[in-house]
Amino acid sequence: MNSFVIRIGGEAGWGIATAADIIAKVFIKAGYHVFLHKEYASQIKGGHNYHTIRVSSIPIAAPIEHVNVLLALDSATGEKHTTFVVDGGTIIFNDSVEIRTTKRNVHYVPLQITKIQQESIEKNVANAIFVGAAVKLCSIGYDILESVMEDIFKHKPVLLETFRTAVQKGYNSIEKSNTINFPALKKSLSLGFYTGNDAITQGALDAGITFHAQYPMTPVSKILHNLAKDAITTEALTVVQPEDEIAAINMALGASYAGARAMTATSGGGFSLMVESVGLASMAEIPLVLIEGQRPGPATGIPTKTEQGDLSFVLSAGQGDFPRVVIAPGNVQECYTETKRAFYIAEKYQLPVIVLVDTAVAESFVTVTLSDDLHIDFSQRFNIINTVGNSQIKDGMFMRYEGEPLLRTVPGTKNGMYTCAGDEHTEVGCITEDPTIRTSMMRRRMDKLNLIETELPPPELYGSSDADVTVVCWGSTTSAVKEVVDTLNSEGKKINLLQMKYMCPFHTTTVHDILKKSKKTILIENNYSGQLGRLIKEQTGIAMHETITKYNGQPFTVDEVYKLIIQKW
After folding, report:
1. For position 180, what pLDDT does the model report?
2. How far is the C-alpha of 459 from the C-alpha of 510, rounded, in Å?
3. Whole-angstrom distance, CA of residue 418 vs CA of residue 408
4. pLDDT, mean of each 10-residue run, the chain (569 residues)
5. Residue 183 has what pLDDT?
6. Where in the chain is the domain with CATH 3.40.920.10?
7. What CATH number should be reported for the domain whose range is 461-568?
8. Strand, coil or helix: what is 368?
9. What is the dihedral angle through the alpha carbons of 144, 147, 149, 155, rounded to the nearest 10 degrees?
10. Is the peptide bond before 323 cis (omega within 30 degrees of 0)?
11. Measured distance CA(450)–CA(357) in Å, rounded
């Protein structure tokens, strides 16, 4: 089975997220791969929320358009999503609300929500009733559902009992004649269920993070929440929520200067406030990992939706030329791997590393086992020294900004004192305006990018080696494109994919050679202006033959990408 989709919708504050989480974990426990995409309004209560659970017997990591089962807690869900329900699909709805949009060849199953809630001690249990009904409809055993509920509510026994009672009523309300033949597989999957934010958190922990400062901002607030929980039991980890993003990045820089492995995270609006300090990190050569979660801009934009509109911004943010590394992971596994890589690069080369994600990958859940693809020993420190020799001292100060590799000390190191400045400086950090020193220091800093490029894996083509079409993309869009590439190649087409992950430094020669041999190129991006296409043309001189952009706050779906590629073929 390639895809079976359940969508649940209702108002914010009705427990849509909890219901979707339980349904998803039921299918995981039944042996299926799951992709869970959440769409929610940027308000605490009211507005329309809907979450989509895609189930498959094979690994999946992207949304699709069609819906097999729609759980409509309110009339708005029926109006907005009935059109996506496939022929032969099912709509389970609250019989006390009017479903004004109907569709032929769809089964309508009413639930007596009002009656059931009147019989319950807790009145706001509609989400639980729908959970029970959905699981029964899909012929999944109640024992699996019970096990999932016990795990989720294990520390909330009163809530568990309330939820269980409502779930049972929903489960028993579905007649066997309405069920779908959806047997559980032989064994449950021993996979994690992570978002990109979760993977970033785990990557930071496995890289030995000891300090994190963040002002919460969608879509990366969960990183702060996750690390705050870990800090309770991890003595070496300090997590701070300061008054704003300016304070967050400067606290992270101060901690890093003092020897901590430090990180901060924000979205585009917060990054706008951090820009000057990004330049400071590069000039003073202080390691920093910065997670930038993209959402539609400008200004506040659409806070809870997705877009890939910040690429050009992060590549050029700040006055003057200075080195920064920009990495754009495309899936949950890459979020884990590239966060670890970011800590390694930042510490070894002493500069800011920006991990650029979008809402779709940051907040969507996928079944995956996070694997260590780097094999870096983070128990050691990179280019930090504890002993300073006489040859490293000039005028009584440590020559911090000279030599290859560039070495640094932390405050308190004997003979390791130097000046840390945001002005141009000498090898010991003293401020200078000398043209010769300025030229030398600029070249030394910028040359880091050449060294870093050799440590980053060059991009490779995925798919047919003799393709008629090469699709170029980045970020969360990659998962949808990769699935389409597999489908089209299985249908006899010749197509491949070039995923761009390392935006700075840019593998100019490799990308140029790949694209020069491509018969036809199609660029797919979640932004208005085709920012990756502009970057590629700037670096290689090669323009894309076709460009597909989307900027309505929604991610690309597999179905959508398939149709668009065929149109551009």
Report:
1. 86
2. 7
3. 9
4. 90 93 96 96 85 96 97 94 95 86 88 81 81 95 96 93 93 87 70 97 98 98 98 96 99 98 99 99 99 98 97 98 99 99 99 99 98 95 97 96 94 97 97 98 98 97 95 98 98 98 99 98 98 99 98 98 97
5. 67
6. 4-190
7. 3.40.50.920
8. strand
9. -170
10. no
11. 24
How far is the C-alpha of 49 from the C-alpha of 38, rounded, in Å? Answer: 8
148/530 Cα distance (integer angstroms): 43
Look up residue 412 and give its two tokens: 């308190």
Show the tokens assigned to 291: 């997670």
The pLDDT score that the predictor gives to residue 120 is: 66
CA separation, residue 449 to residues 47, 278, 327, 356 (Å): 46, 16, 13, 18
Over the Cα atoms of the chain, what is R_g?
A: 26
Q: Are 424 and 439 in contact (CB under 8 A)?
A: no
Q: Taking the chain, what is the end-to-end CA distance rounded to the nearest angstrom?
A: 28
Q: What does the buried/exposed string (b/e) look like for 151-167 if buried means 16 or more CB atoms within 10 Å of the residue's CB? A: ebbeeeeeebebbbbbb
Going by C-alpha positions, the residue among 325, 338, 331, 345 that lies closest to residue 203 is 338
Contacts with 254 (C-beta within 8 Å, 6 or more apart), sequence order = none
Type of residue found at 285: E
- Cα–Cα distance for residue pair 469/477, rounded to 1 Å: 17
Give the burial string for 418-437 (b: 16+ CB within 10 Å, else e): bbbbeeebbbbbbebeeeeb
- E strands in 295-380: 325-327, 352-358, 365-368
Name the segment(s) of the chain with CATH classification 3.40.50.970. Answer: 193-368
Cβ neighbours of residue 76 under 8 Å, at least 6 residues apart?
A: 9, 11, 48
CA-wise closest residue to 364 among 389, 332, 405: 332
Can you give the pLDDT at residue 165? 92
List CB contacts of 176: < 8 A, sequence separation 6 or more. Answer: none
CA atoms within 13 A on the CB side of 418: 27
CATH code for the domain defined by 4-190: 3.40.920.10
The top-level CATH class assigned to 193-368 is: alpha beta
The two structure tokens encoding residue 144: 């699996």
Amino acid at 490: S
